[in-house]
Automatic annotation (TrEMBL), chain A:
Protein name: Autoinducer 2 import system permease protein LsrD
Chief location: membrane
Cellular component aspect of the GO annotation: plasma membrane
Protein location: Cell membrane
Keywords: Cell inner membrane, Cell membrane, Membrane, Transmembrane, Transmembrane helix, Transport
Organism annotation: Cognatiyoonia sediminum
Membrane-spanning segments: 26-46, 106-125, 132-150, 170-191, 223-245, 251-272, 302-322
Record text on subunit structure and interactions: The complex is composed of two ATP-binding proteins (LsrA), two transmembrane proteins (LsrC and LsrD) and a solute-binding protein (LsrB).
UniProtKB/TrEMBL annotation, chain B:
Pfam families, per the entry: Peripla_BP_4 (PF13407)
Regions annotated as coiled coil: none
Organism of derivation: Cognatiyoonia sediminum
Protein name (Swiss-Prot/TrEMBL): Rhamnose-binding protein
Signal peptide interval: 1-25
InterPro entries, sorted: Bact_Solute-Bind_Prot2, Peripla_BP_I, RhaS, SBP_2_dom
GO MF terms held by the record: carbohydrate binding
Amino acid sequence: MTDTTRFIPDRLQSPLERRLKSWETLLLAVAVSIFIVNSFTSPYFLNAWNLSDMTFNFTEKAMIAFAMALLIIAGEIDLSVASIIALASTAMGAAVQIGIGTPGLVLIGLGVGLICGAFNGFLVTKLGLPSIVVTIGTMSLFRGISYIILGDQAYRGYPSDFSFFGQGYVFWVISFEFVLFAIIALIYFVILHNTNFGRAVYAIGNNPVGAEFSGIRVARVKFILFLLTGLMSGVAAVCLTSRLASTRPSIAFGWELEIVTMVVLGGVNILGGSGTIPGVVIAAFVMGLVTFGLGLLNVPGIVMSIVIGLLLIGVIALPRLWEKWKS
Amino acid sequence: MSITRRLFGGSAIATAMLAGNAAYAQDDMRIALVVKALGIGFFEAAAEGAEEAAAELGNVEIIYTGPTDTTAEGQIEVINSLIAQGVDAIAISANDPDAVSPALQRAMQRGITVVSWDSGVNEEGRMMHLNPSSTPLIGNTIIKLAADHMPDGGQVAILSASATATNQNAWIEAAEEVLPNYPGIELVATVYGDDLSDKSYREAQGLMASYPDLKAIIAPTTVGILASCQAVSDADKIGEINVTGLGLPSEMAGCVVSGATESFAIWNPIDLGYSATMIAHALATGAATAEPGAEIPTGRMGSVTLDDTNTAAMSDPFTYDASNIDQFKDIF
């Protein structure tokens, strides 16, 4: 008999090693390098007020992106979010005309968001329609209602204290929107990573039938996710309307794709089943840093879109290529 | 220039962190021309005018910028990055008079001169607004365009957009007021084509049938002038009836070549970009102040005078004819 010893590791990777090789670490490295590059290419980048202004490029979109991340992890999608903003903003604008004050306006904005989310959720979970089809439909529907109400007109005359949500500062350069963004990020982090509800979201995304048989009420979880996405669109509508101090039916046009881009860049699997909130937070910063950095160099918007597109493809393709090259 | 600034920028990050933008006092005055969206011929031409003004003024750098599509949110991101760069002046053609206003107010709070041109911003969001022209100037121009080619006088008719179109009605009213200044010119009818090609075409045919001695059709609308030109060509009345009014050079080139239109007018985007830059420069250097009644010099365009709402009109609409149509037909 020959004496053979074999090394059997206790575990495949140490927690530290796993964390170092994670998507979030890669994305964080990208964010830091963009930050450094920006500091060198533009003398105006490293300035507290300018960095504060930069956050407005992504805070509202990121608020929706968190809810969208949960929805995509569960295997669904909502493309009507930007149109919900338009409808909620139009409702708030109409309310201003009949003299409703700031607290009422906020409630109306959030309420319209919830109703729109419930409508999407009803069509998807009760009637069993595919969410991509439903929300492409409601994308036209919600914004269409705004166009019918407003046409080429605008609502203005928002009360002056309403401007705090989109233009106010909590402390020095820290804007109210940024604080709200941080709080919402924290809430979604807890929901997704520390609750039974969060585990159910992952389970549904990985195997909806299996989840159903394990006693998860799949339809109810999905309905709640659509409600949350609608609510977040309402929150974003309050912030954006306050920042613009006016409403036109074209408000937030095209945001749905930027929000989905943010979610996918954050490492959420577009087919569902995996993804994290910290990933989406870093992705929001990456997109904000890239657009603001290029803006400081007066790079035309179309080039910015190309850079974002290449970044998305690059960040997603590189790890795959790396795996292939290693094996 | 850009290389030295980049080197300077790289080595002086620490200074920048301490002193912010103050460390980067520029020799050049930087004027940003913000347009509704990049890649539109009209605005490219305006940028050309801005560069012309910059060359004439000297020590002026033009930053020609705008969003990819015509959204207010996109323009706000552009404005934020211009505020961050500490430009001296912003001259904007706004996608939304209200939505960009808070961002522009912030720009003014940080000492940036803000003027709007072409498409205005509400009064709180800018120091002054430059209109390409004004109602009396347009009213006079459309009559003059017809009268110039009618030395013996005669009958003219107006083909407008809809009967409720605010702009057109104001221009026609202004035209009627100056009519006594053009003896021999008789306005026989005003008809409405509702800015629809087929309806305008039929209305033009109707005018030719009702008034056999008609010498000119004046259409102060881009749809109407094109349809009238078509109707006159189809009726084989080129040379008898002159079609004039307000049109786009790209659409009207064929009519001018065929002779159905001797001349027509519309604002000139090059002059508009030029004047906006001149005004922004004058306000930013303190050579002029934006207040009601102020007169601001605009280089080769003369000067403009501000009204009660700090709005000014640049000039008569620019006249296009066979001599310059080729130059402008590719622009807009």
